[in-house]
Amino acid sequence: MSLEQTIYWLIPPLHIMLAIAASGHALLNKADSRGAFGWIALCIILPLAGSILYLIFGINRVNSAAQKHYVTKLHKDSSDTITEPEGSNFRPLSMVGERVVGKGLSSCDEVRILVNGEQLYPEMLKAIEQASDCILLGTYIFDRDETGLKFVKALAAAQSRGVEVKVIVDAMGEWMGLHRIGDVLHNHKIAFVRFNPITIIPPALNLNLRSHRKVLVVDHRYAFTGGANIGDRHLAEREDNAHRVQDIHFRLQGRIVDELEWAFRRDWYYCNSAVEPTPFKHHNPNKPDSRIWSRMILDGPNKSLDRLSDLMLGVISAAKERVWIMTPYFIPTADLLGALVGAHLRGVDVQILLPGENNIKPAHWASRNILRFVLENDIYIAYQEPPFIHSKILLVDEQYSLIGSANMDPRSLRLNYEIGVELFDQTLNQQLSEYFIERRAHAVRVSKEEIANRSLPVRLRDALAWLFSPYL
What we know:
By secondary structure, the chain is an alpha+beta fold. It folds into three domains: about 5-60; about 110-285, Endonuclease Chain A (Endonuclease, Chain A, 2-Layer Sandwich), CATH 3.30.870.10; about 305-470, 2-Layer Sandwich (Endonuclease, Chain A), CATH 3.30.870. It is built from 17 helices and 16 strands. The protein has helices at about 5-30, 35-45, 50-60, 60-70, 95-100, 115-130, 145-160, 170-175, 180-185, 255-270, 305-320, 335-345, 360-375, 410-415, 425-440, 450, 455-465, and strands spanning about 105-110, 110-115, 135-140, 165-170, 190-195, 215-220, 220-225, 250-255, 290-300, 320-325, 350-355, 380-385, 395, 400-405, 420-425, 445. A nine-stranded mixed beta sheet has the order 1-9-15-14-13-10-11-12-16, sandwiched between helices. Strands 2-8-7-6-3-4-5 form a seven-stranded mixed beta sheet, with helices on both faces. A hairpin with a 3-residue loop joins strand 13 and strand 14 (about 400-405). The longest helix is centred in the N-terminal third of the chain and has 27 residues, at about 5-30. The relative contact order is 0.13.
């Protein structure tokens, strides 16, 4: 029998065995019945290819591998938090995050809102240039352009004067530019690692498990976090910038800085496969008389799975007056969608601002498929005028604000490593509300008729994009 004939006869039984194995794995490990059914159908319908696709995209490898290695033994000298600060009235909203992460609140001395790269980058570079102890930078995208090279220069100068400098860039995010920044960082001998490196040998089967976190900690004093990456694209005021992005970021001070530094160092030890890192030491007191209170929420497909999703679900369900959401990608899960509708039915003011033009077209199409269910309940949704706005904020009532890196879509809430910060402060909430209102003034409300009158080809396109939304 020739080789071709042998292969011909081997393919059917091989397909059957792989399909049974992959289908059985999906049946036993998928929490969502629709997801399990979809993968089982794909494995049966597509000979070999379906099983291979499931092997690459369907298995949550953090549950099978990274869960054993990611959670490093980075102990803190003290993790004291305050459950209910004296004189506060944060309940029941503060109870949600407390139950999700098992911790109380940390004091925050100051929160500075930084809009777009024009406000953000000078503040970040100033902190780096004045650093005397440590600079810890983690980001999803670090472009090798004018802005990116400014940061490299500042980091190299800090390192030359004896400052501890560490940089984490997501391996997939690094490929978002034409040239990788890692080569430049290596040339300057800056301590640099890629999160979940993409390799051919051995093959990297964790392509979906990306770190979307953005954190910069300087001298244990300042911490920057939010939605902005590093690159010229965030210089939104430059009209000649073809791919400009609007965004919002934050500079924090106080005990919360320690929490964000701890999160970075956990990622650093994970990327370096460190088994027993140096115990973490706090540098900022948890002040009982603080005006602003905060809590960090780490989310990822490891043991932190669904934390941000559960948090959002809880605070939206606890809202009494308003839920205002600004997100670049809006593909909520069924439970989050139900929470939004439920809040609206209770009389809560639910408003959602989305970008009118999206940098990921399929994500925009998938969102359009979801909007029909939201608009049927007369919830306010509006598209903001370009350029693309990447801001992520969730405002609940008058004291609660959730900031960070996460979008309201399956990739952020199921696959990515994300970071969020709850902030309890009426003044900050009011400032972010003003930002929301300003953006809303330049937005166009989406009508039920607009979504309902889409042509059949457009509706099919949107529905197909929604089907693959977990991987967009």
